[in-house]
Amino acid sequence: MINRYTVIGQPIAHSLSPVIHQLFGELTQRKILYTRTEATVENFNETVVNWQKSGGRGCNITLPFKEQALAVCDRLSAGAKRAASVNTINMHRDGSRVGHNTDGLGLLVDLQQNLKFPLSGKRILLLGAGGAARGVVGPLLDAGPEIVHIVNRTEERAASLAKAFVNDGPVQASGYTGLADEAPFDLVINATSLSLQGDLPPLSDQVFAPVALAYDMMYAKNDTVFMTWSRDSGASVSNGFGMLVEQAAEAFLIWEDARPKTRMAWPRLHELLS
Q1: Average pLDDT, the chain
Q2: pTM of the predicted model, to two decimals?
Q3: Were both Cys, which of 9, 10, 25, 197 would link to 32 (CB 3.0–4.6 Å)?
C-alpha cells in the first residue's frame, strides 16, 4: 500500500516538497506518493477534507494557510498550540486530523547543526508576524538568545505575537521605524513573503552586527533580493532550503514513524538548487 501525502498552498507549483519527500521515502524504504495541491482561502478547509476523503494520510501546509489550518484540525500538538500555526496535518485512520508545526525545529536544526550558527546569547531580528513567524518564535526563544525582536509593517500585529510568547523568553516587538533605537542584530530572519514578490523589507544596513547572518525562509535557485541586499550590507547569507528539508524530515517522522538521515539526502538535494 502506498501512503499518499500532499502540500497545500498558493502558489504551489514551485514547491520542492514532492521531490524531498519522495527521496525520504527511498532513504527509509517507505512507499509514498507526494503531490502538490493548490487551494484558495475560500476552499482551503474543503480541500483538506477532500484530500483525506480521497485516502490521503497527511498534508503539509504552506503560505498562506498556516494559521487558517488550525480550524480544520480536530486536535493540535503542543508545538502547534504554542505557535497557533500548523504546517503538518496527520490524518488518522479514525478520521481525525491532528495539526503539528515542525517549522521551528527545522529552522533550529538548519541554523545550529547545518550552518554551525549557535543561537545562545545572540540578538535575533525576526521580520514578519504571520504564520511563518509564529511557527519559529517559541523554538528560537528555547535556544537561549539575548533577545528575539519581532518587527512588522503593522506594529500591532508584531506586538500581539510578542505578547503571546512573553513568558517563554526575552521577546519584544516594534514597527520598522522602531529599529532605529535598537543595537545591531547577529541574526536577521526574513519570515515575510516579500521575496516571492521580489521586494525588500524597509531595513537599514545598520541592522547587522559586524559578524551577522541573514536568513531568508524563502528559497530559490538564485539569491533572493533580501539575500543580495544583506550580502551587499556585509552579512553572511542563507536561504530557507535547509529549513525546508529539516522541517520536512520532522513531518515525515510524524507520518511514517521514521526520520530520514538528511545528511544522506543533501548531495542529491543540493542538485535541486544548482
Answers
A1: 95
A2: 0.93
A3: 25
